[in-house]
Write a structure and sequence with these properties.
The complex is a heterodimer. Chain A is mainly β. Chain A is built from no helices and eleven strands. In chain B, strand 7 (59-64) and strand 8 form a beta hairpin. Classes of the chains: A mainly beta, B mainly beta. Chain A binds chain B through residues 33, 35, 37, 40-45, 48, 50, 55-56, 58, 88, 90, 92, 98-104, 106, and chain B through 4, 33, 35, 40-45, 48, 86, 88, 92-100.
Chain lengths: 110, 107
């Protein structure tokens, strides 16, 4: 069974642009959560979705949005990118067996 | 103040040494997770604890709910254990993460 899959693995964007990151959870996992990890720091919670509904939101501006699809995959969107949005974005899915993290998408904003 | 504090921030050990990483937290939790992150970013979940002690191979994790403290021990450390170890606590639907302990094991 495949683990949590995130795409793309690396991405370079220019300030002001918009970006969409994707996450496919483990088959059977209905909950997906997103985290931002700035270099040298621990991950920070952004969103959690369960059964296509937002169940939690961290302290991030409205430029950050997400959604979950009927197949439980998820997208994280960031608008009007800032240099400070450069980070590793991690997705985790949750099922009966616990949490599994993806390898992340490294976003660089120049 | 961070909800989760880890110590030490950096740790260098000789191969074979016994290693301890500590985690203290200040919020009520439903579970505590120890995670391993290798260069490149991918995170692997090592343990999920809500009480007591768990062991997996050379890794041992303990938690004291009353003292809001957990430890991760690595016995007979090996260079392949070199990674960042992150303590994360879960409250409801949200995780709080420590800043990680960067471990380097020298052959």
């Amino acid at each position: 069974d495949a683990g949590v899959t995130q795409s793309p693995t690396h991405l370079i964007k220019t300030r002001g642009q918009q970006v969409t990151l994707r996450c496919s959870p483990i088959s059977g996992h209905k909950s997906v959560s997103w985290y931002q990890q700035v270099l040298g720091q621990g991950p920070q919670f952004i969103f959690q979705y369960y059964e296509k509904e937002e169940r939690g939101r961290g302290n991030f501006p409205d430029r950050f949005s997400a959604r979950q699809f009927p197949n439980y995959s998820s997208e994280l969107n960031v608008n009007a990118l800032l240099l400070g949005d450069s980070a590793l974005y991690l997705c985790a899915s949750r099922g009966v067996g616990g949490y599994t993290f993806g390898s992340g998408t490294r976003l660089t904003v120049v | 103040k961070n909800e989760v504090e880890q110590s030490p921030q950096n740790l260098t050990a000789q191969e074979g040494e016994f290693i301890t990483i500590n985690c203290s937290y200040s919020v009520g939790i439903s579970a505590l997770h120890w995670l391993q992150q290798h260069p490149g970013g991918g995170i692997v979940s090592l343990f999920m604890l809500s009480s007591g002690k768990k062991k997996h191979g050379r890794l041992i994790a303990t938690i004291n709910i009353q003292e809001k403290h957990s430890s991760l021990h690595i016995t007979a450390s090996h260079p392949r254990d070199s990674a960042v170890y992150i303590c994360a606590v879960r409250t409801g639907n949200q995780f709080y993460f420590g800043t990680g302990t960067s471990l380097t094991v020298i052959p």
